[in-house]
Amino acid sequence: MDVQEVLRGVKPLLGQVVPVRTVQETRPREEFEDAYAVEVNVKNASKVIKVLDNAFPRDPSRPLNHLRRFAKHTQIPDELRPVLIKGEPSTQTIFTLITPPLPDADTLRELLAPFAPPSDSSQSSETQPSQDTTGTIHLHTIRIPTQPPLNIAQAEKWSKTMWPVVFNPATPRATIAPPPHALSCVHESLKPKAGRYLALARIVAAEAEKSGVGRGVGAVVVDPELEATIDATDDARWADAIVAVAGDIRYARREGGAVSEAERHQGTGPNPNAQAYNPDVEGGPELHALMHAVDLVASARRKQAGGEMNQSIPLTPLEEFFLTQSDAPVHQSAEESDNLSPVPRKYQKTETEAYPMPTDTDSTRVPRLRSREQGGYLCTDLDVYMTHEPCLCCSMGLLLSRFRAVIFPRQGRMVAGGIASEPVISPVPVEEAEEASAPTSDPPEQEEAPSSEASRPYYGLHWRKELNWRAMGFEFVEDEITEKSAEEGVAFHA
Amino acid sequence: MPTNLSDMAQDDNKHIYFMKQALLMGEKALEVGETPVGCVLVYRGQIVGSGMNDTNKSMNGTRHAEFIAIDEMLRAYPRSLLRSTDLYVTVEPCVMCASALRQYQIRAVYFGCSNERFGGTGSILSLHSDTSIDPPYPVYGGLFGKQAIMLLRRFYIQENEKAPKPRPKKHRELNTKFDDET
């Protein structure tokens, strides 16, 4: 196989890249906690804030700015009025909110005592019978929403029933989704070449399938930082930022001393096992395309560090090509390349002739994969393009490998996938366009999945606030769909 | 169903023995500077695979103890035997491993302490029992949980020379107390 010819012949998929929303966006979870509402003298409002903020500094990681710090009597939700307001509403006092984590009640009472409401408007003794003296501070426990409202309706509902809430559409919802700016930066950076990388991933997948070593699943790993240094107009260098490609190899492992499934089915053509899902011959997730790619990156790193590659399963020409590029010079001068090419001899002729020569001659021999000294670590800040939605195991594997982003065609969604966060509903391009033009519009409340939809869980594992590591997820929506979605095919782990 | 008490006691001894072997693997990991998580795979009362975290040495963040143990087992046995194999692991399997174990159709998982940051069998997600194309597996937590936690504490008190900016931890003291003395 002439790798250069393959690279030249890659026809980009046409379509658009759309972010995969987080599960907290698609199924907003409401969270509530206890807080105190405390009546204070309206004249002392600013002092109260100062005293409170000094004594209990606010935790910046818990944005509670959607909750008003004060509520006038008229703003108190109807449900709380009987508890908070005794007698006629007054303009002499105001209620301040003490948010969680709640401080010690006695400390708080002591702190706020100087600002207690005048005795005539203070509470009757019903709530705190033993402490009915002038200037007593009463702490009323109420429930508050700890997450910012996602739309106006929610803000209004909470304001009417719990506590006055402000809706700010611009609030970066850092706790439930990637910061909008960061997301759009990554999104923009992926757009120009996603179709091409995905097309290559499909070629890698076809190689894996044809050879019988695995299912038709492929992965392409790209260093976006390296990509930024490549002259975008130089079409011959489009693949220069790829640090690894890998196909599925689930049938290639020998187990218990026996021949592998791939060896059992000699000859060309897809492995017959691929026609159904039989867990006993599937091989494990460490043989899936993504894990294989992670393993190739790791072995290149070990080699950089002076270790061994120890590849037990033979690589395809494409895998071999990019693996050797990863610890080899990206930039070679024509004179050097003859004797210094790290490309195995059997490919060497092709490479030295066809691999595009750099125009900048001063560049030294830099491996594509950044070394440890250059900040290279695991798969930090790399992007992975997949033909299919990775399985749950691989989805978590990509987080543990610290990838920046994962991109797969929507056609490659899998019933056992770990990234999608909601069913595909209407004709998607239209819907996406609307959403893009009206980012502040309210998401439909409690969207019901159409009953015809195959039931599968939606984990949205790429970005979950519960997990320590996160990546951005994108689907590639092709303009023209000619085959049925992988979700309707054999259910297996990609 | 009548339960034979001596059988139960024997069962307990078995669990204790295998979890201790897993803890020993965790000790080994600690000695070589890996996150101290260890595990063993048990088929018909025999250890057929053992593993410890290997992410630093392999430079691969997915090389968790479970995968290492499965690798070892599969050198001698076909994967179909995992259906009759139990895993003893010092820390609750992470989301990745929880899914892998399900794909491998493990028979049962016994773990020491739970994993509040990445746990995939109850702490963060419940991949052992969620809807999936593979059958669910039972999990039993809390066996030598404190010993598993102490291994982790001993690890995290060390300075990480491999970190870009090692944080001095000279003055840290090993915490040997537990909030919930049960």
Automatic annotation (TrEMBL), chain A:
GO terms for biological process: nucleobase-containing compound metabolic process. GO terms for molecular function: catalytic activity. Residues 118-134, 430-440 have a biased composition (Low complexity). It comes from Aspergillus avenaceus. This is Cytidine deaminase-like protein. InterPro entries: Cytidine_deaminase-like. Residues 114-134, 430-455 are annotated as: Disordered.
From TrEMBL, chain B:
Residues 173-182 have a biased composition (Basic and acidic residues). Its EC number is 3.5.4.33. PROSITE patterns: CYT_DCMP_DEAMINASES_1, CYT_DCMP_DEAMINASES_2. One of its GO terms (cellular component) is tRNA-specific adenosine-34 deaminase complex. It catalyses: adenosine(34) in tRNA + H2O + H(+) = inosine(34) in tRNA + NH4(+). This is tRNA(adenine(34)) deaminase. Belongs to the cytidine and deoxycytidylate deaminase family. ADAT2 subfamily. It holds the Pfam family dCMP_cyt_deam_1. It comes from the Eukaryota. It comes from Aspergillus avenaceus. GO terms for molecular function: tRNA-specific adenosine-34 deaminase activity; zinc ion binding.
